């Protein structure tokens, strides 16, 4: 339910395109430069000289038949003598996390494919062993280890099926915890720790494919609906030599708890895991002795709403980072009302607040123990932006902003090991993404002639009449908002307004970053056609405005967020006389589609036209991990789920509704559309409905689909919320 499509979430912030598949940009271990993929192959670039060295030439990467191997990602062995290349990737639910892997020997310039005999594009998350002698991977839900020199393949698990999942995860874990890579090499290269999920008790949701065959057929997805217990897990440690697995003794009911994080602790024969209770409002860290399988809890955290495990390191399956030779670790928590980083002793008994202040740490960036420095992004004064800060790792002193004061907007950084250099990226709503290389801690451009400061002076800002502002609802809630005014705007005239909404905990829509204010579902220019385009961020969105702001939505999805959006809109109507309140439209996708429906149904006096895409019409149809995290367990408070669901209020529709859904949506199931349609029919409500046959949640598959969706959106909006000044 986290699909934004409008891509104002084009933040370009550091992220991996395929979660837990290594990025092509990688720092050298000593921080003196970086590697990346170019047309030449894998190229190493020294800093600050920018001198390049080809590590793996692209013309050497050819199969036996002479066809080239496309590098989707790669990893390099600790010794630097071998390169593991990922290619021929295929999609697994959201991301292309299965494919083929090849090992390139740097000295011998030879190439060898892993997993010969296994199905094409079936290998997942291949990793070198720490000693570089073997590689491990998952194929068809089993874990394998392969000797790189001899090519001998050893199958380490044999019980993997479509529903018994070793070394990776089921649909819900992948979607809601970002868990994909499900195994870890031990430091001595002698064993592998891995997850096993048993999805046999999870009921299949049967999607129906009616387009790819004369006879329709079912597409089953193991999908635990809210209120259903999750797939039970086990953590096993398999010996590479014997292929024997020892199962760890983890306390608690594995069918009513989760283990979203697991890693070797750095100590011999010891794992560390994070376990969440079913409601995800209690988190426990445990050490696991892999010799006897025993578990020892050492750090527990509770929250009245939920524990946000996604506020840790971006794209890192771990939630902690060891410092002080393993005697302490860093941990992110919202326990004092703000998202902060804490320095915690290994036994969990002593903790020190590192990011001191009444603000949210947005993302960790780099730990530099040698300089006693901790780098992170934050924006204490403007929740729509992000800047780089530095503070002493010992928790003393005050945060120091390093980002230049004259570069207002959103900044992201990738800092080298040792903290000497960084790749700095910047944009705002009017400035397309810019990049430079800087030295730290003084934030000095390595190449001043091509610095962001110089580039920003040379380019023309986007011709986008966007304004960021705040409004207060009648309840006194201060809401961040933006508005794009029409071309040749005349404040004496009245214009229609179109709101783009999301409104749930998975994302914010009011960001001072490039892409904000642009509607990619509209054919042409909304501003030129005479529309005001706007968005507001309600309570419950993940803005850096404190835990109370974010968690106000607990058990209130579909109520408090809708009230805030309507309150902000009505405040805007009063504040801006140029808004034509007879022409008010709203649109959104996924959670934003749900908000669109609720706004039309709950506040029909304000919202006259709505276009909802892939919406959750009935909260009881969505997955357990997401919905229970934010709403509780329906066996205890079912009335909250019903109250916040659009179908409950569908009888109130007065305006114009276009509802759109893909029939092959494995995320927000098409059943939501048919349930909503039934309710609207029952109440004699006239509306328009567009199913896209066999399209998934993104409605992008098939020739002409995206173009058709834009045409449909634009035509409906123009007919039902006519553009232009009056």
From TrEMBL:
What superkingdom heads the lineage?
A: Bacteria
Q: Where is the Dipeptidylpeptidase IV N-terminal domain?
A: 77-432
Residue ranges of domain Peptidase S9 prolyl oligopeptidase catalytic in the record = 525-719
SUPFAM superfamilies named among the record's database cross-references:
alpha/beta-Hydrolases, DPP6 N-terminal domain-like
Q: Which GO terms describe its biological process?
A: proteolysis
Stored InterPro entries = AB_hydrolase_fold, Peptidase_S9_cat, Peptidase_S9B_N, Serine_Prot_S9B/DPPIV
Name-wise, this protein is: Dipeptidyl-peptidase-4
Molecular function terms in GO for this entry? dipeptidyl-peptidase activity; serine-type peptidase activity
């Amino acid at each position: 339910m986290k699909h934004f499509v409008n891509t104002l979430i084009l933040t370009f912030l550091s992220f991996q395109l395929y979660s837990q598949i290594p990025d092509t940009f990688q720092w050298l271990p000593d921080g003196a430069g970086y590697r990346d993929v170019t047309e030449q192959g894998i190229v190493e670039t020294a800093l600050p000289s920018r001198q390049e060295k080809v590590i793996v030439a692209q013309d050497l990467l050819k199969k036996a038949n002479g066809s080239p191997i496309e590098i989707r990602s790669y990893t390099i062995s600790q010794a630097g003598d071998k390169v593991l290349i990922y290619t021929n990737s295929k999609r697994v639910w959201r991301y292309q996390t299965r494919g083929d892997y090849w090992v390139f020997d740097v000295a011998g310039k030879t190439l060898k494919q892993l997993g010969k005999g296994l199905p094409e594009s079936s290998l997942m998350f291949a990793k070198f062993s720490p000693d570089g002698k073997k590689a491990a991977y998952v194929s068809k839900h089993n874990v394998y280890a392969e000797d790189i020199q001899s090519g001998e393949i050893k199958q380490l698990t044999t019980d993997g099926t479509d529903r018994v999942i070793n070394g990776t995860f089921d649909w819900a874990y992948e979607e809601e915890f970002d868990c994909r890579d499900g195994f870890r090499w031990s430091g001595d290269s002698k064993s592998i720790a891995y997850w096993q999920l048993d999805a046999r008790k999870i009921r299949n949701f049967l999607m129906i494919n009616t387009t790819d065959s004369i006879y329709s057929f079912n597409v089953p997805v193991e999908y635990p609906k809210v209120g259903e217990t999750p797939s039970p897990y086990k953590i096993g440690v398999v010996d590479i030599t014997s292929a024997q697995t020892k199962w760890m003794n983890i306390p608690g009911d594995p069918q009513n708890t989760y283990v979203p994080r697991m890693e070797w602790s750095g100590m011999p024969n010891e794992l560390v895991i994070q376990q969440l209770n079913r409601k995800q409002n209690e988190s426990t860290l445990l050490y696991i002795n892999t010799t006897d399988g025993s578990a020892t809890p050492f750090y527990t955290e509770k929250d009245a709403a939920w524990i946000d495990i996604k506020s840790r390191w971006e794209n890192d399956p771990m939630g902690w980072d060891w410092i002080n030779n393993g005697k302490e670790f860093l941990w992110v928590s919202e326990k004092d009302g703000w998202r902060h980083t804490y320095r915690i002793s290994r036994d969990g008994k002593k903790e020190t607040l590192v990011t001191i202040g009444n603000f949210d740490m947005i993302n960790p960036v780099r730990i530099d123990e040698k300089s006693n420095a901790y780098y992170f992004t934050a924006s204490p004064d403007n929740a729509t932006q992000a800047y780089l800060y530095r503070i002493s790792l010992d928790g003393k002193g005050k945060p120091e902003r390093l980002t230049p004061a004259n570069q207002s907007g959103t900044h992201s950084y990738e800092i080298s090991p040792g903290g000497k250099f960084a790749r700095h990226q910047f944009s705002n709503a009017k400035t397309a993404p810019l990049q430079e290389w800087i030295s730290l801690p003084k934030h000095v451009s390595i190449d001043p002639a091509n610095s962001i400061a110089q580039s920003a002076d040379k380019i023309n800002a986007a011709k986008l009449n966007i304004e960021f502002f705040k409004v207060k609802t009648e309840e006194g809630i201060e809401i961040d908002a933006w508005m794009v005014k029409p071309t040749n705007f005349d404040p004496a005239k009245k214009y229609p307004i179109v709101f783009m909404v999301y409104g749930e905990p998975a994302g914010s829509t009011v960001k001072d970053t490039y892409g904000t204010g642009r509607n990619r579902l509209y054919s042409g220019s909304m501003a030129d056609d005479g529309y005001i385009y706007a968005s507001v961020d309600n309570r419950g969105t993940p803005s850096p405005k404190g835990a109370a702001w974010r968690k106000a939505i607990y058990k209130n999805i579909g109520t408090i967020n809708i009230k805030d959006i309507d309150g902000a809109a009505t405040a805007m109507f009063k504040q801006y006389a140029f808004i034509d309140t007879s022409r008010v439209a709203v649109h959104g996708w996924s959670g934003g589609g749900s908000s669109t429906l609720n706004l039309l149904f709950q506040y029909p006096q304000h919202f006259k036209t709505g276009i909802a895409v892939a919406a959750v019409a009935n909260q009881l149809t969505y997955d357990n991990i997401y919905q229970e995290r934010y709403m509780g367990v329906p066996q205890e408070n079912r009335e909250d789920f019903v109250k916040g669901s659009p179908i409950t209020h569908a009888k109130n529709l007065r305006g114009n509704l276009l509802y759109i859904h893909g029939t092959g949506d494995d995320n927000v199931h098409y059943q939501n559309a048919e349930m909503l349609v039934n309710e609207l029919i029952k109440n004699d409500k006239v509306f328009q409905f567009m199913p896209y046959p066999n399209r998934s949640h993104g409605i992008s598959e098939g020739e002409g689909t995206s173009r058709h969706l834009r045409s449909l959106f634009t035509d409906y909006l123009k007919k039902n919320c006519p553009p232009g000044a009056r």
